[in-house]
Write a structure and sequence with these properties.
- This protein has helices at 33-45, 61-70, 99-113, 132-145, 158-171, 194-201, 237-253, 257-266, 281-288, 297-306, 315-319, 321-328; strands spanning 3-5, 12-14, 17-19, 50-52, 78-83, 118-123, 148-154, 176-180, 204-205, 275-276.
- It is built from 12 helices and 10 strands.
- α7 (237-253) crosses α8 (257-266).
- The protein is α/β, with parallel strands linked by helices and 337 residues long.
- The protein has 2 domains: 3-214 and 255-302, NADP-dependent oxidoreductase domain (TIM Barrel), CATH 3.20.20; 311-337, no CATH class.
């Protein structure tokens, strides 16, 4: 396992992150404690040190399991958890981005994790109610107190992230160093604004669902579940076309489709650390072999072509030949960034 710097920080994290949403059976489809520990140990033995969880995962069981798993070598692991999602229903202050929920949620996570600090705290999703300044001041206070070392943001519009980090920079507060979004060969819309923003502002990218819920493994192509599947972004003709290409590339490279999909996410022009996860040890073992492969440029081009999206306005507009002409007066090719 190699390591990457987490955005504009000196924190060293492994090139694959272990997602632990499956640690616990409370949601009816996860792993019991024994299997969860095997998954964790397989990842750790491969050199992985970057663990991703959240306050809501399996009703808190994920955090409790992890607290036990890392206890013997706590300082070795880079432990990331999240706040924003509810810990209690029918109470408006037990969810959201605001300071009261932030402090309460972090205290509860620390107790479940049985640790004194969180290495990376993610804002899990933007609630569109809390002022940006309140969020950034609260997060900075957590960092200043030592309860949290770094902060990141997930599932939030690019303009809000940009504004938040600009405010932090001007006021001397801790900025976000990471961005977590859904990103895969089936979900490339973050390339419109989120990823360019992250690249420009020095945020590391940690894609969630890089296998698109398993669709990119090709499992839906043969209808392994043996029943009619409802139409969705992951179960559509477009999704099947992309999955077939992934399977084809895997055959050429002598690896599995999952490894191709993960490696594609890793080989972006930004620090990209995909989050891997699964209910079975065998799934994680297969994912970990991704670090041993490299997708050749010509095959990357094929994958990019089959999964290309319309960039939309203003991106497509600004690339039109006549617009480029009037912007640069015919000199664009002579200007080097």
């Amino acid at each position: 396992m190699n390591y990457r710097l987490l955005g504009r920080s000196g924190l060293r994290v492994s090139e694959l992150s272990l997602g632990t949403m499956t640690f616990g059976t409370e949601w009816g489809w996860g792993s019991d404690k024994e299997e969860s520990q095997k998954i964790f140990e397989s990842y750790a033995n491969a050199g992985g040190n970057f663990i991703d969880t959240a306050n809501r995962y399996t009703e808190g069981t994920s955090e409790r399991f992890l607290g036990e798993f890392i206890a013997s070598d706590r300082d070795h692991f880079v432990l990331a958890t999240k706040y924003s999602l509810f810990d209690r229903t029918d109470d408006p202050n037990f969810s959201g981005n605001h300071r009261k929920n932030m402090m309460r949620s972090v205290e509860a996570s620390l107790e479940r994790l049985d640790t004194d600090y969180i290495d990376l705290l993610w804002v899990h999703a933007w609630d569109a109610l809390t002022p940006v300044e309140e969020v950034m001041r609260g997060l900075n206070d957590l960092v200043s107190s030592g309860m949290v070392h770094y902060i990141g943001i997930s599932d939030t519009p690019a303009w809000i992230v940009s504004r938040a980090n600009t405010i932090a920079d001007f006021r001397g507060w801790s900025p976000f160093v990471g961005l977590q979004v859904e990103y895969s060969l089936l979900q490339r819309t973050p390339e419109r604004d989120l990823i360019p923003m992250a690249k420009d502002m020095g945020l590391a990218l940690t894609p969630w669902s890089p296998l698109a819920g398993g669709a990119l493994t090709g499992k839906y192509l043969n209808n392994e579940e043996g029943r009619v599947q409802p139409e969705s972004a992951r179960r559509s003709e477009r999704a099947n076309t992309i999955a077939r290409k992934v399977v084809e590339v895997a055959g050429k490279m002598g690896c599995t489709p999952a490894q191709v999909a993960l490696r594609w996410a890793m080989q972006q022009e930004i620090t990209s650390i995909p989050i891997i996860g699964g209910r079975k040890l065998s799934q994680i073992e297969d994912n970990l072999k991704t670090i041993d492969i490299e997708i050749p440029a010509e095959l990357m081009a094929e994958l990019n072509e089959v999964s290309a999206i319309e960039m939309g306005f203003p991106h497509d507009f600004l690339q039109q030949e006549n617009v480029v002409q009037i912007l640069y007066g015919g000199t664009r090719d002579k200007i080097k960034p």
